């Protein structure tokens, strides 16, 4: 059977989480509503993540990887995954596993009708500061983009690959994926998903990344929206 869905797993210094990632995603593949493969994107990790990734991929035919020469950021990792994907659907999940792979099936239920389906973290298990800064950042982003999404930072998304491959890369991209699909006249939907505390490793984002950075990115998005070129081919000869 042909693969239908690629799950991108960005990795940056997550050696303490990767064995659990392997187990959880192996379990998900067995119950996935569409035949699924996994693509690790190692974003220049400085710990033993790359060694563990190579071992996981050698032991699992459904797993493969890309490894960056140096750390380029989450948006670059996601974009590299989009570019490498050869399935009709692509998604991603963070390697901290604060969201559950089995919830991909909830999103996949709606992907025939929509071009992007994103999770919304219900009952978030984060600190007060993290939750509050995310709430403020999401409010600012909605005011700029009018995307109607409550939680674009949720690391659980499914996108039609034809749309994902047309998204231009820029830092902070991961916060604007629904808005970038709207620029292509696509349809988007959000679905509540589970959320869990981080068990191992360290969070990669502080107050600057969650609040000030996204505000600056909103102005970049407005510029891009004004300059964005969208077209549909009517005929080929």
Tell me what you see in this structure.
38% of the residues lie in helices and 17% in strands. It has 237 residues and is of the alpha/beta class. The protein has a single domain, classed as Spore Coat Polysaccharide Biosynthesis Protein SpsA, Chain A (Alpha-Beta Complex). It has a 7-stranded mixed β-sheet, sandwiched between helices. The model has no long low-confidence stretch (mean pLDDT 86).
Blueprint of the fold:
Elements: E1 5-11, H1 18-31, E2 36-42, H2 49-59, E3 63-67, H3 74-84, E4 89-93, H4 104-108, E5 116-121, H5 128-145, E6 156-160, H6 161-164, H7 177-183, E7 188-193, H8 207-227
Parallel strand pairs: 1-2, 1-4, 2-3, 5-7
Antiparallel strand pairs: 4-6, 5-6
Fill in the keyword field for this structure.
237 residues; alpha/beta; Spore Coat Polysaccharide Biosynthesis Protein SpsA, Chain A; 7-stranded mixed beta sheet
């Amino acid at each position: 059977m042909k693969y239908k869905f690629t799950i991108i797993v960005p990795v940056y210094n997550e050696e303490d989480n990767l064995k659990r990632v392997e187990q959880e995603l192996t379990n998900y593949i067995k119950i996935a509503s569409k035949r699924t493969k996994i693509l690790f994107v190692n974003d220049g990790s400085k710990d033993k993540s790359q060694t563990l990734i190579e071992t996981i991929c050698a032991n699992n035919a459904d797993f493969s990887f890309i490894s960056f020469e140096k750390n380029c950021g989450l948006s670059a990792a996601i974009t590299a995954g989009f570019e490498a994907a050869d399935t009709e659907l692509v998604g991603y999940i963070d390697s901290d596993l604060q969201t559950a792979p089995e919830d991909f099936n909830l999103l996949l239920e709606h992907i025939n009708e929509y071009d992007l389906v994103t999770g919304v973290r219900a009952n978030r298990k984060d600190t007060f500061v993290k939750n509050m800064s995310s709430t403020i950042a999401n409010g600012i982003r909605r005011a700029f983009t009018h995307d109607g999404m409550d939680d674009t930072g949720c690391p659980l998304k499914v996108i039609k690959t034809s749309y994902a491959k047309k998204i231009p890369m820029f830092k902070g991209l991961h916060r604007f994926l629904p808005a970038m699909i709207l620029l292509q006249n696509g349809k988007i939907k959000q679905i509540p998903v589970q959320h869990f505390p981080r068990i191992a490793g360290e969070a990669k984002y502080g107050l600057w990344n969650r609040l000030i950075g996204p505000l600056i990115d909103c102005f970049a998005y407005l510029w891009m929206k004004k300059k964005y070129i969208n077209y549909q081919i009517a005929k080929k000869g």
